[in-house]
Each structure stands twice: as C-alpha cells, then as structure tokens.
Amino acid sequence: MTAPFRSPFPDVAIPDVALTPHVFRHVERLADRVAVVDGPTGRAYTYAELHGAVRKVAGGLVAAGLGGGDVLAILCPNIPEYAIAFHAVATAGGTVTTINPTYTVGEIEYQLRDSRASFMVTIPLFLEQATTAAERAGVETIFVLGEGDGARSFFELLAADPIDQVEVDPRRHVVVLPYSSGTTGLPKGVELTHRNLVANLCQTEPVTTATDDDVILAVLPFFHIYGMQVLMNGVLFNGARTVTMPRFDLADFLKTIQDHCVTRVAAVPPMVLALAKHPMVEEYDLSSLIQIGSGAAPLSADVEREAMARTGAEVTQGFGLTETSPVTHTALPGRAISGSVGVLIPNTQARVVDPESGQDLGAGAQGEIWIRGPQVMKGYLNNPEATVASLTTDGWLKTGDIGWVDESGHWYITDRIKELIKYKGFQVAPAELEAVLLTHPAVADAAVIAVADEEAGEIPKGFVVLKQDMEASGTELIEHVAGQVASFKRIRLIEFIDEIPKSLSGKILRRVLRDRDAGDA
User: Fold this and answer.
1) Fewer CB within 10 A of the end CB, N or C, for the chain?
2) DSSP H helical segments within 47-155, as ranges?
3) From the centroid of its chain, how far is CA 149?
4) What kind of fold does domain 421-520 have according to CATH?
5) pTM (2 decimals)?
6) Domain boundaries, the chain
7) What integer pLDDT is reported at residue 505 of this predicted model?
8) 440/434 Cα distance (integer angstroms)
C-alpha cells in the first residue's frame, strides 16, 4: 500500500441537495413509524409528525425574521425537539450553532458573539444563563421549550404555516457551526456545509448495518458532531428509531436499553468501560443489544473485548473529527479488529505524514494522519490563519492525530500531535485553562497537560509557578478554575514547580512536562 491511501469501498454518488430533505428521505414510507422518543418521558414523534413540525417551525422562524445565513444557537440537552429546531433552521436557510449546555455564561457568550447568533433556543432549566449570555452578546430573540420570563415559547412556532426547503447552495451554505478547538487554542467555529453533512451520510451508508427495525440510543450530546450526525441525523437517514437521553447516568442508561429494547448504542470509551466492568450492569437485561459503537477517543483492545464478552454485543470503533463531519474511518460489523478504528469510508483518502520531514510514509509507519474528502469542512469561521494552518491548498486536512495503517487497510490511532485533552470524549484546550489559571493573583506562570485516567481517558493537570512571596493551595487553584469553565474542563490535579519549560520562542514544552509526570508516576 502506498500514499495516498484509499477506501476499500468504491466511491458513492453524493447529490447536490440540502440537508433536511436528504435526512427525511424515508418520511413517506415510514410516516406512521415512531422516529424519535424521549427516553425518560416516552414523548414521541412519528416520522410524519417530526417532519411536519420541522416545516411549521421553519415557517415560524421565517415569520420571526430569520433569514438566509442568520445564525440560531441551540442550548439544549438531547430531547426530540432538538431535531425539530435544528432542521427547521436548515429548512429556513439559516445556520445552527450548537452549544454545550454545561458551559458557563462566559463560554456561552463567547460562542454567541463569535458565531454572530441572533436567535437562540433553550429549555427553562438553562434560561437564566442563556438570557444573561444573550443580553451580553446582543442576541435578539430567545425561544424556550416551555415557558420563561423574557423568552418566546418555542411551541408558538408550531402554529405557523409550514414551508418547504428554502433554496441554498449546498456546497457553499454553512448549515451548522459546531465549535472545536482544532489542533490548539480557544474553540473555533467549524464551517460545515449542507454538502459536507449530506456527503458523510452517503459515505457511511454502505458501511452501516442499521435497519428500520433498529432502536438506537442517543445519549451522546447532539451539540457534539458525533451525536449530531451519527445519531440525530444518521438514525433518521437510515429509517430507524432514536431514543433520546438528556444526560448520561449509568442506571438510567442501562434501564433505557432494557425498557426500550435498544439494539445499538453509540458510545464513548468511559461508557464502554462501565459496560465492561461496573457491577450494576448485571442488574439489567441487555439482551436486545447487538452493537456498541465507540468513538471520540481511543478505546483499548482489552476494554473492547471485555465489553463484548460481558454484554454479548459487538463493539466497533470509528474515527473522525468535527472538521470531517465527522466520520473518516469505521470498523465493519462482523469484521472488526480489536484496537483498530477500521477502514477508510468511501470517497475518502488519507496520508500518513512524517511530522518532521513532511514526507509521506507507507503502511506500518507512524505519522500524522491527513484526510481528504467531501466531508472536510469549509474552514474555521472568522479565522483564516487557523484554516490555512489546518487545510492545504489541495484539500488535505491535517488532523493532528498520530496513527498508522496495516497492509490490509485497517487503521490505528496511537497518539496526538495536537495538545488537546480528551476528557470523556470532550475536547479540552490546555491554553484555555492556562489563561484562567493566570488570572489568579498568586500565579506567575502555568501549563496544563493531559494525564491518563482509566475512567475519563484523560484529565487536565496543571503545573503552576507561584509569584514570589505569595501562596495558594492546589485546592484553591482547582476551585478558581472550576468557577469559570464547564465541568468537563476542570483541572483535576495541580503540581507546583519552579519554572515552566519553554522553547526559545516561548512555547510551552508540554512534552517535557509529560515526561516529568511519567517519571514521577
């Protein structure tokens, strides 16, 4: 095998169409079948009801002033109405930006400002922080799924006259702006077009075994590209049923699988670890489960095998990024190799590049994985420098992930060039946490690295240099950061040192800190 490496599958046709009509391709055939059901309450929509609600809310949003290219932010947990809001905006020719509900007011404000959102959808539980952030960012209108002061009811939009898809240029029109830290730094808006998402649905169709009879659990958040595309959009595209869960709780997770006879689960490694090892698993009937797909972070072959032996379900891995809509590799059901993220999906090319020389490497050699295909993002919003750093002029995306491919075309992810920390599948940028640490009056300098953790995958650890004649405890600094960032970003460990190692250009030498930490372990 030689570079560029190609998928073992033939290319598939990718139509130049808008996203929502493509996702709802089965609406007439499956009109009376349940499309999505809320796990905790049983509230459900058939395919016809869901699609009808999308068209009505789209009409209501247009009547409320949402025009082509306008941005609406969704700040919600996984509920059936998330899909309605998302696809109503897409139908109306707008752009969605999806926000993590655990964000602080400051983090929400940053994304609202950066995406230039003018509308917002949330739930009563999050309305207070949503309203505060919206006022600071200049968001004009908030819709709430229920009732709340200062917001319009989302359900009023259902009274509008339905509209059909507003004409868009699928190759140019950005349908969604999820935020990713990319290879480094603060979160950046990833510009994904209608064609990007349509392409990835078409590309994954030949390698999925989901059918109309499948019941698929959606606990991975819809604000994240994995939940958004593989679950919210992908399940509808394949004609199956989605069961939504607003958050992960192991007992609720297991009970939902049992009560709804869930056949497939999309998971992240900490969930697979719980299925492999937690004693609570024995208390539930998981016999309906036939497949567990793991992504967003590496999963060890040992845990993969343990989970399969315990649940009787096949565990498969995949690989992708927010910048690739997201899927680039997937293991094939019935043909998965433990520890491998599988093979390239159709219409996708990959290279393994030596990070030092920039030369292409062959099978068996480790290097940075580069990707090219129709699922690769348009670019980073308002950030041409980051776009140029990540995308080559001939369309190759530099993933920042280190891996290799064997002679049979199976890929393995082994490390990361990029400095992101993967906490339970979520991206945590060290630079963001360092900036927060430096706001403490006793901190002179700081650096943050990833530390391996069996449950979370990785946790952030801070190295701190204190100012002369000033004191602060590790607990105090951990609490200082916790008050300013989302819960998944919190620093879990602090070590005090005399100096932060840096290069001549002033860049933090995190590898030196990682080696130091490994030596102390």
Assistant:
1) C
2) 47-63, 80-91, 105-115, 127-137
3) 31
4) GMP Synthetase; Chain A, domain 3 (3.30.300)
5) 0.87
6) 421-520
7) 54
8) 10
